[in-house]
Amino acid sequence: MYDAKKIEELSIVFKNFKAMDFSLADLPDITLQDLLQISLAYQNKPVGWRASWVLETIVLKEKSFLEKIVNDLVAHIDRQKDWSSLRSYTKILMEITDIKSINLPLSAQQKEKIIEHTFTWMIDPACALAVRCNCMDILYNLSQKNDWIQQELVQYIHLFLKTPTPAVSSRGKKILHRIGRSQ
Q1: Where are the alpha helices (DSSP H) in the chain?
Q2: Which of 53, 60, 72, 162 is 20 to 30 A removed from 14 (C-alpha atoms)?
Q3: How far is it, in rounded angstroms, from Cα 92 to Cα 114?
Q4: Is the Cα dihedral 26, 27, 32, 35 positive or negative?
């Protein structure tokens, strides 16, 4: 792993770059797996959520990198407890599970783990709104081949719409509309 001095240097680099400026070439001696591990090792600290954000920026900009990170990301999603980092993780998972996008092949075990944790995050009262909205999209993406997910998702969206925020209302209604069209 990285020593405290290296982590401090990375934190400064992460803080000073704009999101669209990042590419893996800008981070010598750092891999996608390193960014994931830093985000896990430094939860609830700026360097941890910045590492998650940089990972998200890099893999969504260069989608071929998603294939390189998917197994490690899914293997460790249960360890991430920081909502700021989970925002980035869920954005990556939205892309991985989107059948119109890269649609990486996931094993049944990987899908089960994503579904379990996505539902858990989404219904957590402390869940950040952006994470909740991303979770709804992930579950919708995975519901295309699992009717039970769609049924559960619809129930939760209706529950969320009883006391909605603008973001949850907008995303929830879009997903309900998509579900209505697909049935």
Answers
A1: 4-16, 32-41, 46-61, 66-76, 83-97, 108-123, 129-143, 147-160, 166-182
A2: 72
A3: 12
A4: negative
Q: How far apart (Å, rounded) are the C-alpha atoms in residues 25 and 84?
A: 24
Q: What is the pLDDT of residue 4?
A: 61
Question: Are residues 120 and 161 in contact, defined by beta-carbon separation less than 8 angstroms?
Answer: no
**Residue from 143, 165, 149 nearest 99 by CA:** 143
User: SS3 letters for 54-88?
Assistant: HHHHHHHHCHHHHHHHHHHHHHHHHHCCCHHHHHH
What's the CA gap between 140 and 161, in Å, rounded? 16
The domain segmentation of the chain, as residue ranges, is 4-182
* Average pLDDT per block of 10 residues along the chain, 183 residues long: 63 61 68 91 86 91 91 96 97 92 85 97 96 97 90 96 93 94 60
